[in-house]
Amino acid sequence: MATSIRVKLIGKAQSVRAAGALAATIALTACGANAPDEQSEDSVGSTKQLLSAPDADYVNTPVGKVHKTCVREATGNEAVDFAPCRYKHKLDFAKLRGAPSNAKSVQGGQAPTVNGWVENSSRNAPAGSWFSAAYSAWYVPNNPSSQSSQLVYYFPGFQNTSGTLSIIQPVLQWGNNGWFGGNYWSIASWYVDVNGVAVYSTPKTTTSGNIIDGSMVASSCTIGGSCTWNITTTVRGTATTTTLTRTPGLVYTWAAPAALEAYNLTACNQYPNNTGVNVSTNLYHGAAYTYLSSAWSSTVNSPTPSCHYGATNSPNPGTTLLSHW
Known about the structure:
Blueprint: E1 2-9, E2 12-19, E3 25-27, E4 38-41, E5 47-50, E6 58-61, E7 64-67, E8 71-74, E9 79-81, E10 90-91, E11 104-105, E12 114-124, E13 131-139, E14 151-159, E15 166-176, E16 181-193, E17 198-201, E18 204-206, E19 211-219, E20 228-235, E21 241-246, E22 254-265, E23 276-285, E24 290-292, E25 297-300, E26 310-314, E27 318-323
Parallel strand pairs: 3-9, 8-17, 9-21
Antiparallel strand pairs: 1-2, 4-5, 6-7, 7-10, 11-12, 12-22, 12-25, 13-19, 13-23, 14-15, 14-22, 15-16, 16-17, 16-18, 19-20, 20-21, 23-24, 23-27, 26-27
């Protein structure tokens, strides 16, 4: 199946073509060496026997902290199978669906610090259906005027609402997440699940002013919507592209057409030197890849420091302005 969809971006339009693909599968073994287990409660309330580790051993993924031994790069376009991580992890999948903020402010001798999900738009799939594609586009913003150890993510994403909670997302990143990146812009495509497993495609660098095309496209779907997923992040007009293939797939019924997440951010000038980032997204659902209107909701978690946060939605096509200044 191949489909051609136009994505409008701040007055511009571009034809984006995506095709489903099947690829060989690689297995990721369970993370962590043999050691006495201890109980830990994950973000959705289930109790597991997990290992402890120093904070320095964790990676700030685009949905929370995962132990570095359970973060994997999938080179090329491999499809991946996953085994649960043996280490404690701090993920907030339930909070992505509009529960209270996981963007916490650290107090007590430290400057207030943003650490987590900040703001997003959202949309549920129609009753009885599931998402089958998303095509997004946004500009790479200016570099932050203050460059420290902050980490900033912009992305659209799909999440399932039952079974093993997970998110897929094409991501634009500023900063080092503990595994890759620095004081520059980079792109990668991600899968993270509630078992503390995180897989990303080969990171590529980009610069301010470029346009990012992000897509999540299903293929080989069952009648119930379990699909192979290709998550692709591309710098428009260049050969810079990176794809992650996820199979067997889950049924994704919740979308974040645009989202902002940040870590280690203590001042508003550590965000990009813009008033915000516009993300345009077209959503499709079901086996027929039916276009879904942009009747989106917004969630703004408003952590400290307060940086004029906002997620303002505009229809036709659906665009979310993620504000910060």
